[in-house]
Structures are given as C-alpha cells and as structure tokens.
Amino acid sequence: MEQRFTIGQLAKSCNVTVDTIRYYEKQGLLPSPHRRASGYRVYSEADTNRLQFVIRSKKLGFSLKEIKELLNLSHTPDLTSQHQQIHAVAKEKIIDIEKRVADLLQIKQALEGLISDCHSEADTPPEHCHLLRAIAFQEEL
C-alpha cells in the first residue's frame, strides 16, 4: 500500500511551508490532492516527487511558468520532440542566466567605482559620498 501524507508532513519532508504547497496547487504545478472524508488533503509519493522536482527546478533558476512547461514536457509521448523541447527550455535559461550575470557585473563595477570615489575621512560629511549622491539623486551609475 502506498504511503500517504498530510499537507504538514509533505511540507516538512520537502522543507517548504504549507502555504507554498497550496500556492503551487493553485498555479497548477501540483495536482489537486485527494481528500479524506474529513476534508483533509492527502498526498502520495508521486506528489512528493513532483514537489521536489518543482523545488529543485526553482533552485536552478526556472520560473514557475518554465517549471510547468518542463512538467508538461515530461509527459509528452514523442521522446525525440520531448528531448528537443527540454533542451530548448534549458538553453533559454542559460541565455537568461548569462544576461543576468552580465547585468550583475555591471552593477558590481558601478558600485566599486562609487566606493572608490567615496571619502572615508571622518570629517567628510556623508552627503559628499558619491554612492549616496548617486542613489539619492539618481545620478548615472
């Protein structure tokens, strides 16, 4: 007989909150669970595996929309098409990550420049700090 879990047990085993599970259900990432006569949700091992898939995908940077797409692709009967589409989703994610890394490097360089321009002398008023002025007055970074 397959093991069944309450929502609290599922949340604890996957290290997420009950609200997270309910949210994923509303977003269609998790199927609506079976309910006991008492109305309590009951989850299966398959639900646990699916939730773990969602959690791991999030850690890899996939959006909920992309995760839903990956879940749908995992049930595509045409294996060749399935692999090609999964590969395409992953490549798009890599391109997105590379763009975000480039953006973060630009931000880092801007901050380094502003920090080097800031005087650390105790008698210099904070309003003379280039970093604070750039933030306060929306100066070009």
Describe this structure in words.
With 141 residues, the chain is mostly helical. It has six helices and two strands, in the order H-H-E-E-H-H-H-H. It has helices spanning 7-14, 18-26, 45-59, 64-73, 79-117, 130-136; strands at residues 34-35, 41-42. A two-stranded antiparallel sheet has the order 1-2. Strand 1 (34-35) and strand 2 form a beta hairpin. Helix 4 runs antiparallel to helix 5 (79-117). It is elongated and about 75 Å long. The model has no long low-confidence stretch (mean pLDDT 86).
Please give a quick description of this structure.
With 141 residues, the protein is an all-alpha fold.
The structure class reads: mainly alpha
The span between the termini is: 62 Å
The amount of beta strand, in percent, is: under 5%
The topology string of helices and strands comes to HHEEHHHH
Rg, rounded, reads 24 Å
Percent range of helical residues: 55-70%
**What kind of sheet is the major sheet?**
2 strands, antiparallel
The helix count comes to 6
Strand order within the widest sheet? 1-2
Secondary structure topology:
Elements: H1 7-14, H2 18-26, E1 34-35, E2 41-42, H3 45-59, H4 64-73, H5 79-117, H6 130-136
Antiparallel strand pairs: 1-2
Helix pairs in contact: 4-5
